[in-house]
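Case study B.
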Amino acid sequence: MKQFAVIGLGRFGISVAQSLSEKGMQVIAIDKDGGKVKDAAEFATRALELDATDKNDLSNAGIENVDAAIVGIGKDIASSVLITLILKEIGIKEVISKALDPLQGKILQKIGAERVVYPEKEMGIKLAESLISPGIFEYIKLSSSHTLIEVDVPKNFEGKTLGNLGINTKYGVQIVAIKRKIMQTDKTGKVGFSEKIIVAPSADDGLINGDRFVLLGENKNIEKIKKVK
Amino acid sequence: MKQFAVIGLGRFGISVAQSLSEKGMQVIAIDKDGGKVKDAAEFATRALELDATDKNDLSNAGIENVDAAIVGIGKDIASSVLITLILKEIGIKEVISKALDPLQGKILQKIGAERVVYPEKEMGIKLAESLISPGIFEYIKLSSSHTLIEVDVPKNFEGKTLGNLGINTKYGVQIVAIKRKIMQTDKTGKVGFSEKIIVAPSADDGLINGDRFVLLGENKNIEKIKKVK
Ligand SMILES: Nc1ncnc2c1ncn2[C@@H]1O[C@H](COP(=O)(O)OP(=O)(O)OP(=O)(O)O)[C@@H](O)[C@H]1O
Ligand SMILES: Nc1ncnc2c1ncn2[C@@H]1O[C@H](COP(=O)(O)OP(=O)(O)OP(=O)(O)O)[C@@H](O)[C@H]1O
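Model:
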C-alpha cells in the first residue's frame, strides 16, 4: 500500500489527495489553513494543520516514509521552494512540486524536486491536442517514431471487412482493436448504448458506421490514414 | 486548416494558443492586457487588445468562423461567464471555457459552453494516476472494461520468449508492442540510447532487461499481470 504526503491543499493539491485516496492509497494531507485541513479530513488517512516551512513541525508530521510528497503550492513561491527543500532534507525519496512559471520550476529542480508540474500549461497543451484531432479520443506517443491512437473509422471504410481493406499492407498500421457502440433497448423501451470492443480483430471482421478503431504504427503512416475521409 | 480564438491569455490560455500555433493552426489571440497581446503577437495569426465583455468589440474581432473558441479566464468569474455567453450569441460553434470550481463550471455549461476545463483539478487527477502506477508510462482507458497500458516487463519474464511465456493464454492480454532501449556509442565514444519498437511481436521475440511492453486486455486481466514481479 503506497503512502503519500500532500502539502498545500489548493485546487491542485486537494485533487491529488482526493484521487490518491479514492484509489485506496494512504494520504497525509497538510495545510496551514484549518478549513482546508478539515475538508481533507473527510477522506485523508491523516490531515494536519501546520506551517510546512517550519522544519521542526514538518519533521514531526511523520511523513519520512512516504513514497512521494506532492507540494501543491504555486503562488507562494517562497513557501513552495522552502518546503520542497525541507522535504528533500527530511529524506523523502520523491518530491513533486507544482510551479506556475519556468523560473520557479527551474529553482525547484535545482533544490531537488524530482518532478515539476505546471497544471495550467500542461492542460493547455492537452486541450490543444484534443482540439486539433477531435476524432481522436485517446492518443499515446509510443516513441518518437510510433503512435497509438483511437480514431473514427473513415466513411469510405464502412461496410467493408478488414481483409478487403488491407489496412495493414496499404497504410502500414496495425489495427489493435475496433470499438463499437451497441444499441440496446431495455424492457421499458428506453434506448441505451453499451460499448463493445473487438480486440486483435481478424480479416473477416467488418467495420460499420460509428465504429472507432485503435491503430498502432509509425507516425508518418498514422498521419496518412488520418487523412482518409 | 483549423482556426481558433483564444480569449484570456493567462498561463492556461497562452499555452493553448501556443500549442495550437506550433501545430500549424490559425490562432486569434485576445486579451485586454496589452503586454499579453504583444507576447502572443510573436506566434499568433492575429493578436487583439480588447475587452471581450464588450459585445461590439468582440463581434468586430472577426472570430465568427473559428472552429472553436477557448475562454482562458478563471479568476474573473463575471468575465468568464459573460464572454462565454457572448461567444455563443455571436454563433461560435464550440466554446471551451476554463473554470476554477464546479459551481463556475455549472454556470458556464448552463449558458452554453460545450466543454468546461478545470486545469488544476484535472492535472491533480492525472498526477495521482501516474503516482499510483509509476511503471505505467502511458495508459488508455479503452472502454469501461478494457485498458491499454505500457508497463515495465516483470523481472520473471526477462530472458524468455513470448511463445514460452504464453502471456495471451495465461493472462488473457494482448501484447501490442515491445519497447526496447538500444545502447549506441557514437564515434567519439559517447554512449546514448535510442528506442526500438517491435510492433505486433511474434512468439519468437524475447524479452530482455529494461524492456517495456504495451498490453491490451480486459481490466481484470490487466490488473492480474500488473501484480507479476
Ligand atoms: N507554508 C505553508 N504551509 C502549509 N500550507 C501552505 C503554506 N503556504 C501555502 N499553503 C497552502 O497551500 C495551498 C495553495 O497555496 P497557493 O494558493 O499558493 O497555491 P495555488 O497554486 O494558487 O493553489 P491552487 O492549486 O488552488 O491553484 C493553500 O491552501 C495554502 O493554505
Ligand atoms: N474582459 C476581458 N477581456 C479580455 N481579456 C480578459 C478579460 N478579463 C480577463 N482577461 C484576461 O484573461 C487572462 C486570465 O485572466 P485571469 O487571471 O482571470 O485567469 P486565471 O485563470 O487566473 O489565468 P491563469 O491561466 O494564468 O491561471 C488575463 O490575461 C486577463 O487580462
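Residues 22 and 108 of chain B are 28 Å apart (CA to CA). The remaining cases will be described in the next quarterly update.
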